[in-house]
Queue: 2 jobs
Job 1
Amino acid sequence: MVYFNCDYMAGAHPEVLGALCETNLQKSVGYGFDSFTADARKAILDACGLEVGEVFFLQGGTQTNKIVIDRLLSRNDGVLCSDTAHINVHEAGAIEADGHKVITLPGLDGKLEARDVLQYMEDFYADDTNGHMVRPAMVYISHPTEFGTLYTRSELESLAEVCRKYRMPLYVDGARLAYGLCAEGTDVTLHDIARLADVFYIGGTKCGALFGEAVVTRHIDMLPRFMSLVKLHGGLLAKGRLLGVQFLSLFTDDLYMRIGRHADRLAMKLKDGLIEKGYRQYIDSPTNQQFFILSNEMIDRLSECLGFELWGPRGEQASVVRFVTDWSTTEEDVATLIALL
Amino acid sequence: MVYFNCDYMAGAHPEVLGALCETNLQKSVGYGFDSFTADARKAILDACGLEVGEVFFLQGGTQTNKIVIDRLLSRNDGVLCSDTAHINVHEAGAIEADGHKVITLPGLDGKLEARDVLQYMEDFYADDTNGHMVRPAMVYISHPTEFGTLYTRSELESLAEVCRKYRMPLYVDGARLAYGLCAEGTDVTLHDIARLADVFYIGGTKCGALFGEAVVTRHIDMLPRFMSLVKLHGGLLAKGRLLGVQFLSLFTDDLYMRIGRHADRLAMKLKDGLIEKGYRQYIDSPTNQQFFILSNEMIDRLSECLGFELWGPRGEQASVVRFVTDWSTTEEDVATLIALL
Amino acid sequence: MVYFNCDYMAGAHPEVLGALCETNLQKSVGYGFDSFTADARKAILDACGLEVGEVFFLQGGTQTNKIVIDRLLSRNDGVLCSDTAHINVHEAGAIEADGHKVITLPGLDGKLEARDVLQYMEDFYADDTNGHMVRPAMVYISHPTEFGTLYTRSELESLAEVCRKYRMPLYVDGARLAYGLCAEGTDVTLHDIARLADVFYIGGTKCGALFGEAVVTRHIDMLPRFMSLVKLHGGLLAKGRLLGVQFLSLFTDDLYMRIGRHADRLAMKLKDGLIEKGYRQYIDSPTNQQFFILSNEMIDRLSECLGFELWGPRGEQASVVRFVTDWSTTEEDVATLIALL
Amino acid sequence: MVYFNCDYMAGAHPEVLGALCETNLQKSVGYGFDSFTADARKAILDACGLEVGEVFFLQGGTQTNKIVIDRLLSRNDGVLCSDTAHINVHEAGAIEADGHKVITLPGLDGKLEARDVLQYMEDFYADDTNGHMVRPAMVYISHPTEFGTLYTRSELESLAEVCRKYRMPLYVDGARLAYGLCAEGTDVTLHDIARLADVFYIGGTKCGALFGEAVVTRHIDMLPRFMSLVKLHGGLLAKGRLLGVQFLSLFTDDLYMRIGRHADRLAMKLKDGLIEKGYRQYIDSPTNQQFFILSNEMIDRLSECLGFELWGPRGEQASVVRFVTDWSTTEEDVATLIALL
């Protein structure tokens, strides 16, 4: 059986697991006050090209979105995002559970457009009854998006500009950031993200770690008393050094980018293979998630020897499926898939 | 100056205010345990044709929606409604503030269609990842809607049927219920509402009271420990008898319906007058809110001697405006308006 | 039957009700943007001796505490108070419902002592693990307290000083402020409260209004976007002018103080009468609430022709009872009570 | 340097880490639907002597307390516990953040007494104003407590009985359960906990895992839609199998009990050594946490070559310190400590 279901089916990249094993018997203080974590923070700021800034480590993506948004918003504020945003659809109401409205705008291929945000803000402030409405006070985007698509540098700059105009933080969910940074043709670097996003996170869970996400901000005071808020949300890891050790490993010898490049390369190979065989893309993604439209007959046949994901409800004749690559995907896996089609 | 801005510009209907004055010096226990409140409960159940049921009095519409929804939903549940629903747009995030997602479907003239609810529910339960999504666990509609439109009895029955199928309570926001019940041509009675809605409220604030809404349910156990929940939300009136006295008055000598009929009759007169003069309706409402499209020039001229509301942002050439009637609107007011056009 | 149960058994003081009747047919815009409310704001700032400041009107005490505290605290902050504080005991969890911990210190006769607050703060900041604890970020007191007792000006100054030291707002719950300001022997004036409290409220519900409380702060920016927060909490009154009209009346011709003096004078008469007859005070209160210890036999006999409140659980032989006076209490009521003992 | 600070300073017990390494390259579905997790569930139910029941895996103690309590309580319910309970003191307001009041009773050596709970419940239901109070609707205890002390089986039975009487779930926080079950002289077994607690958790983080806690309940319907609630709280681990693999290892070859016995044995050795040398216990704990009173002089000297924890604020002359053992503590570590005294 070969698996393309998602990018969190295996454990950790062997180098990450190796680092955990090597340090296992060393004793350190808890809650992220250890030296591994300090070193990981430094490595990340360096990679981001930030001389000042803050880095916090959390355990998963929904947890990260939930806590960052809870910190950035006041009680009667909401977060603007695309209607297909992870926080709107697949976080079981995690944002609303903390009292914040998720305000959606129609997205294009999963992306939020700066001009739509601008229009919404202008309308909001022009409306006399806006005291009865939720104030949009931050913008959420994911890069890559939930459809694997990418913003261009210029698009990010436009979003950042609208956000600046209305003094709203721009927050970038980088659950699959490695695959975004390494995509062929992208002009967005980690330095760009670090400079344009007010807060963003570098995904570990889906990019080679057992678990873990690194929240980064170039603003020293934007996430005050964050550790205590993390504790309140039940997200503070006792053995915090586990996150430090893993991220230190990911940011040593370019591992994070090596993982991104590997998965993207195989994803392109997979895409080319499918297109060559005449299959139709549902959306054109340059990253490790590939969406194709397959006949239900083909889906049933493939399912017998291949793992992949049905994307949304099954259609009458054909349905959308998703194939995902990661560090553990091999050339043989892709060859097997293509041979089966 | 003549005012058509909204239905809460004056104090209370003179009969309601008279009742408050007459009882002012009588002493009674607090928090709604008084005999006025008990009598009002009885009068309302009678008017609803309910032999068993519960009635609770609250102070305003948003408060009522917020507390009822908070009681009906579990922590990880959401409420389904039209995208133009008051709870989605104009309650400043009151529902989300209690942790509940407002899940919207496109409405038609402000109305939610049973088949759209059914489709959403089918899709939800067909989706393997619905554990990552907010479970829709109740349906909210308003009658009349935010656009003054009305459901037919058959439409309400269809909605009730879908709700029953998925064991979701159907909740009806009756902020302007008087105007809905008294509209020409409606086939929906208070008995119908009481029988089809699992919980609904009879609006007082916009229908002749100083303030106050009456929550009604035919299910004895659907709103457990409700008074305590009202207290938690800061909605428990110390002098609870004020609500009892007012609603007792509204449900004495058919006052509630008299108010509804009066306002609806004048609204129809107003509508006919505008149509006759060639003005275009934005939406066709049979109740006390009338929406017309006027040239900006006319709007500016009217504003000098007339109060009314701009509905949404001002257009380039023309804009939508709202005229509202209530118990305090007179024949002369309507004649003045028509003469000005 | 004569009633001393509480200070919210009758309607409104006749002058307040008169004002509501006189203005009933006047039309005004909603939500507190009317001129009555503007005038009431001005009258209150004047009475407080404040040249700059903000005044907001709400409907009840728990609602006011809940919303003010929700505005003053960040997500991971708590409020310090006495263990007998209303917010800790009798608000059904209204503060916690918004996510804030109520942190209690042992009170003395219902009062919080500045040195206890100071000690708590010193300990908190000396504790290495305080990141795992709730940060105390404001202080709540009531004046008069839940036991009718009063702070001295010097005690308030000490509390204000500790608060200033730790940059915590001092919030004063003035549900029964009229009775505090008019108590014999108090050296605390409304000017003192306005100058020492960062935020406080002037109680209307228990001091002559049908309902309503006036939140006052001398800091222009301490309660940002407050109206919208009030809406979110379901506390925004559509006919906001009802609050303006009532408070304007209370602050015309010294009515608020006349109400306070009347009730306090009768309360002292009642106290003297009971003491003279040999009854023992449970606590010595200089305001309109009087607490005495009566034999259960006497309690049962009195209950037949007198309304009063059992304070806490009934004892084996004797129990604590509360007698309350207000604007509607008469000399005859007090004479009747004393004659019965 | 030798460390006794806490039981989460090293990584995982070598057998647990070994299991993670062995399974690292195997692919499995996410979110705990894998076979490792299924096997771990079965192993735990077996160890608990439960034929029916549910097991859920979470990542840390505060997260577990927070989510379980959020599921067990309705909106206007609170949780009863000792004033020294972890949820009251050291979880940064995690319980209140979800809207629930933590209602405290004075504890004895960290333990909650059944008769105190009974008294509180009787008083609550006897109070006429309890609609204005938070209803206590569950009981929280920890075993071992925050002071390392243990309930007897009879004490647990009494608590369970009071809970049953008032239909409140009894919830046991077993963050350090291994050390409780293996303590010399305890008559409480895992079967007892499973039979008396309605819900409890078996701590992994402090008992040999990298992280992880196993929530167990013998009631099939007590934690409905729990996975979705976990997601809402940001606690759902993408690679859920990491928890399954670790707990399967802990419940293979009696590892969980071996870890408990090892740490308890060394803790007793440490305790005997200190007592023998004349040091005074702060509290007598039979488990892996030992509390002693040391002179500040001794504390300063020890700190140079030993890690341990100051417990609370430093005293004038002497202070309380805590020494903790775990699976990674060696005989030599204890000998070193004793030699230094």
Job 2
Amino acid sequence: MNKSLDLIGIGNAIVDVLTQAEDSFIQTNQINKGAMTLIEEDQAEELYAKMGPAMEISGGSAANTIAAFASIGGRCGFIGKVADDQLGGVFRHDIKATGAVYDTVPLTGGLPTARCLIMVTPDAERTMCTFLGASVWITPGDIQKEFIQSAKVILLEGYLFDKPQAKQAFMKASELAHEGNTKTALSLSDPFCVARHREEFMDLIDDHIDILFANEDELKGLFQTETLEEALIEVKGKCELIVVTRGAKGSVILTSGQQYDIPAESVESVIDTTGAGDLYAAGFLYGYTRDEDIETCGHYGSTAAAAVLHHMGARPQQNISACLNRVQERLQERKKIAYS
Amino acid sequence: MNKSLDLIGIGNAIVDVLTQAEDSFIQTNQINKGAMTLIEEDQAEELYAKMGPAMEISGGSAANTIAAFASIGGRCGFIGKVADDQLGGVFRHDIKATGAVYDTVPLTGGLPTARCLIMVTPDAERTMCTFLGASVWITPGDIQKEFIQSAKVILLEGYLFDKPQAKQAFMKASELAHEGNTKTALSLSDPFCVARHREEFMDLIDDHIDILFANEDELKGLFQTETLEEALIEVKGKCELIVVTRGAKGSVILTSGQQYDIPAESVESVIDTTGAGDLYAAGFLYGYTRDEDIETCGHYGSTAAAAVLHHMGARPQQNISACLNRVQERLQERKKIAYS
């Protein structure tokens, strides 16, 4: 089937506010380290006032994937709600500047554009506090049948489940996708997000999702298992592809018949892990929408993820496309040796 | 004399919008590479729409110096005008989060907060296009006698000379400083800014400035000489201290009786030179306000400048204070050897 786009992401439209912080700051402010905590506007103001000097970089889980996917050269689009304010302008500029199609009508006269306050500790881990603002005002009306069905794959972020209208938009998109021969991918987003919506995620994965992205903790949370191995047994066969990222330990990919263990790309100095999972999905789906074999998709994921570890923020600052070409050459060389 | 602050900076209150760009982008858009060009709001919108994905980091020349000075542990303040909008909130947060005193009343109902669109080319050079917006609406009314005279040194940025009210504020501050036994430092800002206001800068330096910061091109522009050596002969004796930064070639410092040649700090990979001159001034003035000898001040300048070359943006992301301590230990060690 001819599709004009490879991938459409649907998710929260957020500007990240990133700062470097000591572990003591996380402790003093009683924030759950490494997790994403939802906060209200006044809490966001209060925390921001305490935070060190920061930088603003467009974020949002699915939006990060789309920005990276576009920068690799994929044809893609994004659906997500900003407000009609300066930060909304920043988000819109950045996603459109990657080449992605982005037409969601901004919210006027309501809450401001979503912000995610991100504290990066010396161990390079990111701890996030999100004020969802305008982003939760995405509604089924923002989901257009033609647009959804123009893509080979739509990527939905689990975070959308945190608010009712957004969840409805999510469900509408996944139904339209299935009607239109568009694959659906879901990123589970966060162990706490999984815990908040466990039953619904289970139903969704059973009925609607073709490609599942999760990290180790999210998958264990979903199946309430002690070990990854147990969770992998539980999840096997539930989707066409199950992709589990494991940080420095690489990733595991399950197809109906096989398990692939993909190593992580080695990185010299890790500054900030924000967005590494989102970038993995970008690399993986880039390979997938180009009909690469699963192993190549996995290596593309590892390479894309590595590209945002060297600097603050979840958006690529370098040419990932060149890195993926090197991956492909390396894999082809290896196959040649194996066959010779 | 007891002063409650070491340094107050007075300058444009700007949020930088940084992107990586190829040289061809600079050429196609007919922008003067390496320089700072003033643009209007509609030009800023037009250029922004063409620019790649960006990040927002607080900037402004004197403000960068103050942010770094505060992060080293200096007692300091800043005077500069933002609008009452989201980017103004970003600027205010970032400068206050460093520990600097910042109380300038924001502009309401007028132009938005100033933005500087910065294109960083692969050679790490930055090319800047600035929409001054609210920042030029700083007026003499924003300059309070008590506050100015509470500092050992005030630092004025040459860029303020680009608009009449701002220049008046500048002149008021330098007069109050002299009455109150506060030293005045001037950063020349940009060769084009120097060319725009050459005569006035000459008078100012002759009559009002104790410490002059300039880079090689700015100083040659000011005295319309071919070589740095000629410019150094011309400028000698005009101020108590003349500090000329030369990028990778280090810096030259002239006192009434002596010339000091200070090497640059060696840096492995330079990503973005934005703010290097501003950071040099922070390191130098930190030493100066602590009565360090001139050589130490120069090395502090080199070390602080190096701290922002590794990453995008002009605000420090690491602990410069620790670096300065190492400089001091190194210099003391060298003196011990010289005397033994």
